[in-house]
Design brief:
Elements: H1 9-19, H2 24-29, H3 39-46, H4 59-64, E1 69-73, H5 84-89, E2 99-103, E3 107-109, E4 112-114, E5 121-124, E6 132-135, H6 139-142, E7 150-152, E8 158-160, E9 163-166, E10 183-185, E11 190-193, E12 196-198, E13 204-206, E14 210-214, E15 217-219, E16 225-226, E17 230-234
Parallel strand pairs: 1-2, 2-5, 3-6, 4-7, 5-8, 6-9, 7-10, 8-11, 9-12, 10-13, 11-14, 12-15, 13-16, 14-17
Length: 243
């Protein structure tokens, strides 16, 4: 599938996510407006295509974006793989090119981990029919940070148009090890666009590194964002779930 053109919604989602990875220097010179109604215009004004920002970006990133590879994941056939895990396993260690894993609609009950030696991976869903990444891991089984449905440890990860869910039961205050993380982000320079991240206790482990979240929705009850990451949450929704 190398060299296949990316079209339609894929172009928009990919361009948005990849281009925002290293815009921190621009933010310093153009602060985020205090008026919420002006934020979208501010964002669109400072974000430029990778080709126009080549001298301000990590050369390794610029090179990685030149010839992206696309892998299709579809349940029931029609793609190279039927699970996200198999697609990730096909990416070689030390990968140096953007690999876009296009995830078809449906519910993927998988515990997904992208290891540190596989940078430049994108998980891309369809914004009109977002795939569900779901698992029911808990701290009792795996430890808190390793209970996550999706764990990203590599640099330059991008997630777009995904529902990321930990489906473990609601804690009742009596269960030991009931923490259940939906997403753990441990790599540097990662970005998430138009994702729903849903759990109860400890939903998002913003573990470490610099991260950007745009137009995302996170839901939980207790401590549902935690960690030592340095992140910007832009146009974000944080609804509390009833305990």
């Amino acid at each position: 599938m190398d060299g296949k053109r990316i079209e339609g919604n894929e172009v928009y989602a990919l361009a948005m996510c990849v281009s925002i990875l290293l815009f921190a220097p621009i933010v310093v010179s153009q602060p985020i407006p205090a008026d919420k109604s002006q934020v979208e215009a501010w964002f669109n004004g400072i974000i430029k295509p990778v080709k126009e920002r080549g001298t301000t970006l990590d050369p390794e990133l610029v090179q990685a974006e030149t010839e992206p590879r696309i892998i299709k994941v579809m349940q029931g056939g029609g793609g190279e793989f039927d699970t996200i895990t198999k697609a990730i396993e096909s990416v070689p260690s030390g990968n140096a090119k953007r690999v876009i894993i296009s995830v078809g609609p449906g519910s993927y009950k998988e515990k997904i981990r992208i290891e540190r030696n596989k940078p430049f991976i994108t998980l891309l869903g369809d914004p009109k029919n977002m795939p569900n990444l779901t698992f029911d891991g808990t701290a009792k089984q795996y430890g808190t940070v390793d209970s996550a449905t999706l764990i990203t440890e590599s640099n330059y990860f991008v997630g777009a148009n995904l529902n990321i869910v930990n489906s473990a039961p609601r804690p009742d205050g009596k269960m030991v090890g009931a923490q259940a993380v939906a997403l753990r982000v441990s790599g540097d320079r990662s970005a998430f666009y138009n994702c729903k991240i849903i759990g109860f206790q400890d939903t998002l482990c913003d573990d470490r590194g610099n991260h950007f979240f745009k137009d995302c929705h996170i839901r939980g009850t207790v401590d549902f964002i935690f960690g030592s990451g340095t992140s910007l949450y832009l146009v974000f929704i944080f609804p509390m779930r009833e305990i």
